[in-house]
Prior knowledge:
By secondary structure, the protein is mainly alpha-helical.
Amino acid sequence: MWLHAGEQLTTAWVSVLELLSVVPQAEEADTVQLAFQSVQLLCSDYMSSLPVQHLRRCVEVAALYGSQQVCILRTASCIWFLLLGNVFA
Length: 89
C-alpha cells in the first residue's frame, strides 16, 4: 500500500514541491536534513509517479539543496544525486 502512495497525489505535487523549495533557506541543519531526505525519496521512489509537467520543478528543488549553505554534506550528496542518482536506477 505505501509503495504506491505517491501515485495517489495529483494536484498536491505543486504544494509538496513548493514546501520543499523553501526549506534550503532555513538556518536549522536538522530541518534542511529532514527535508533533503524527502527530496531524495521523491527523486528515487516517486519520480516515475510525478507528472511530466512537474519534473523540471523537481530538478530545480533538488538543485536548491545543492546550493544551500547550512549542511555542506547535503550539498555534496545532492550534487552527486543530480549527476548520477537516476542514471543507474
